[in-house]
Request: fold
Amino acid sequence: MKPHAEIAEVWPRDGRVRLVGHIHGHPAEGEWRLLLTRRSHAEQRLDYPAQVKGDRFEGELPVADLAAATDTAETEIGAGVGVEEWDIHLTDGKVELRAGRRLDDIHAKKKIMVFPEQRVRGIGVRPYYTVKDNLSLECRTGAST
Reply:
């Protein structure tokens, strides 16, 4: 299995998304950060400190930052309901480890695990698992779903 950031806990509440997990298949030395990459514009990135002890990491990101980045993209999305997706990695500056949950017996998490949406300035932000069991964030403008 490829090295990755194995997600153990996802806590979307109080205007933040807190992530807890383990670094799998890669040395955990050095300084680590949570890295968010806007899927439609890979050059647009946000990053936040991650605390690492042994192979365990935890970090959090404010949903207002995602809402602000999505709000500035409103003209690109167009009027009505639009969706922007952000992929989550853990990085030490040299390597980017994709965040996901693969070391359990639950397959197709996208259909099973549903996280609550947090709304900021009319934009809904919620974590979700992709079809490959990676963890991403969805920012939805317009009506709440």
